[in-house]
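Hi V.,

You were right to ask for the full record rather than a summary. Here it is.
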Amino acid sequence: MSNERTLVIQGGTIVTPETMFDADILVRGETIQAIGTALPVPEGAEVIDATDNLVLPGIIDAHAHIQLDTGIYKTPDDWFTESKAAVLGGVTTVVDFATQFPGQTFAEALAARLKEADPSVMDYAFHMMVTDLPPGREEELGLLPELGIQSIKLYTTYRPNYYADDAKILRLLEAAGRYGLITLVHCENDAVVTAQTQALVAEGHTTWEYHGMSRPALAEQEAAARVLFLAEAVNAPVVIAHNSTGRTSVLVAEAREEGQIAFCETAPQYLLLDNSVYEGSEPWRYILQPPLRDPYEKERLWALVSAGEVDMLITDHCDYTKEQKLEIDDFTKTPGGLPGLETSLSLMATYGVADGWIDWKDLVRMMSANPAQIYNLWPQKGCLLPGSDADIVIYDPSVESVIRTEDLHTIGGYTPYEGMRVQGRVVTTIRRGEILVKDGKFVGTQGTGRYLKREALFWE
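Predicted structure:
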């Protein structure tokens, strides 16, 4: 059609999970039409010069929390602000969460989130956070694919609002698998966390510096092992969320070697930061669940990422403000979560690729292709192929800068990565053929993001 937007990206190095090669990309409308060398430029097409730059599929952050309401704390952000920051960092798709509050149907929970997400400039899908599904109503999970949802979220902790005991987890894992859903599980042993927290409170140790002690690594590892065991018993696919220790990822790798459909994710904070920051001058910056771990865990996690045992790099983005974090020096009363959407690609490009733990193909696999395949967005998303959505990031690896709060676009007013060096920057971000970032500046339009409906996926 004559009114379709046409782009030609010339001279860049295209990165896929398998290879890197120099080629041009022709975009017509919302999709990639052709990839090849010296492609002819159609009349009226906009030409983008990507010489000396890398051309990546749009980043998919498969675990993020925008405009979060936990029932206890709320992030005072909005979808336009956070999605603008995301696309400036090369993220073109997010898989966020729709929380089923008590008494809500899944349709009501999703409708509330769709209304909130309407101003987004990036595309978005949702995991359904299942909190109110008593025994005998498991067939309601079968309605989720009709709503475009292919994944659910469960928690082994956070009593009383999110916590699910083993019987509930087993029941919902089985039902989810039966209906073609995959289950993402936050794994921390609730009894261990509760006991450890109560012991610290009894001793008067509630200031931020004690946060890491309240949620020990053993709590994550035990819960992950238990969830994997339960998932295997009912042949249900499972994702173990935000691994903060190497042992957690090893447990997933061992389960996979035994034939289980099991995946795991980790995040920049666990690869780049450690619990020594709780002894520093600003421990409030690093309150999150699971907490940061011993310094040696970073290298253990990087080694597993390098070996291909970690499937996804996510952020668990949560944009509480500096004021919320600083309100009271008590880890039991401080909202947990860190901002990260805008910085994840540049951090992984620097401390993963430039530092030699992974290569660009690995980065694309863990930040684009795998999330798309695990959450049934492939091949619409997560790849550079003819017919796929034209979600494209042009990354200049030659520029060096330092992360500073004043240069970022989220509302939190701080970053846990303050002062860290990054190698490279996002020059251009394209979502479904529309240029959202040009020469590092946001040029997109509010509300142009789209809800991505996902079908059931039955793993063989």
